[in-house]
Backbone:
């Protein structure tokens, strides 16, 4: 277990290959993650400055600590004369969010430019030529979904592997399609959910990086109570970690009752029976 942190107010970050994952998360306070290289943000917390300049904002659900920053980000972008960002959200929250912005426009006597896009699970939303986002269903107290970022990677078709570079070039000049495009799940973010989301999401389990809600870490909150709030207790997670093929797993959305140092020790204790190789992939996001 390790803790990677940069001395930045309001957010922490870690690197994964050519991506930076920057964010913050505490249950009931605020959750927001961003990948600067892709210009993408997932959940908005209170609308914090480190995400204003991104282009794509994906919202998991309508709880205030995840979505409350929406009007403020729209206002800051307008104030700084930035193009309206794209805000992706479930159909259940779009009309209410539009009304909130309309009411604020009336209060301020100013019309805000913005773009809301309804998302549906198993539909792909392109964010660049090489990456797209696919929502997946989660199980929370209100309608919710998580998001996986996929990278399109070109690879030589299996039937041509083993050929020399020259032979491949000849085939290509003959018009043969020598490459195939793989869709690699590089990053997944669950938002808030019960453990059942794992039963239906194979892509999430294969995601290189997984940001996984795990709010409760000990007996101070029972599994039943965690489930009642639509959240995950580490006791439910430990027996299911072996299903995850992810290379880097970050537990997040900790209850405010845990101090960070204490939380590290609770996670270590809960995971002590897991194989070392798996344990080394599990981190705690501050
Ligand atoms: Zn929630």
Residues:
């Amino acid at each position: 277990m390790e803790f990677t942190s940069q001395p930045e107010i309001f957010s922490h970050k870690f690197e994964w290959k050519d991506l930076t994952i920057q964010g913050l998360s505490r249950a009931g306070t605020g959750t927001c993650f961003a990948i600067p290289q892709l210009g993408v943000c997932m959940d908005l917390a209170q609308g914090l400055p480190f995400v204003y300049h991104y282009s794509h904002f994906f919202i998991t659900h309508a709880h205030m600590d995840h979505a409350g920053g929406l009007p403020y980000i729209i206002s800051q972008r307008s104030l700084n004369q930035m193009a309206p960002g794209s805000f992706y959200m479930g159909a259940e929250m779009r009309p209410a969010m539009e009304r909130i912005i309309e009411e604020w426009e009336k209060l301020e006597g100013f019309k805000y430019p913005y773009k809301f896009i309804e998302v549906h699970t198993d539909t792909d939303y392109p964010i660049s030529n090489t990456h797209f986002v696919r929502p997946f269903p989660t199980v929370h107290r209100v309608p919710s979904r998580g998001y996986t970022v996929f990278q399109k990677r070109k690879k030589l078709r299996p039937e041509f592997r083993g050929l020399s570079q020259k032979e491949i070039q000849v085939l290509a000049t003959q018009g043969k399609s020598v490459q195939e495009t793989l869709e690699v799940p590089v990053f997944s973010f669950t938002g808030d959910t019960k453990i059942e989301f794992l039963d239906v999401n194979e892509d999430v389990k294969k995601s290189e990086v997984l940001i996984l809600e795990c709010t409760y870490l000990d007996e101070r909150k029972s599994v039943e109570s965690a489930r009642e709030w639509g959240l995950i207790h580490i006791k439910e997670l430990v027996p299911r970690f072996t299903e995850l093929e992810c290379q880097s797993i970050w537990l997040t959305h900790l209850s405010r009752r845990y101090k960070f140092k204490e939380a590290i020790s609770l996670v270590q204790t809960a995971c002590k029976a897991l194989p070392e190789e798996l344990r080394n992939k599990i981190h705690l996001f501050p």
In short: DSSP finds nine helices and 14 strands in the chain. The longest strand covers residues 145-156. The longest helix spans residues 94-108.
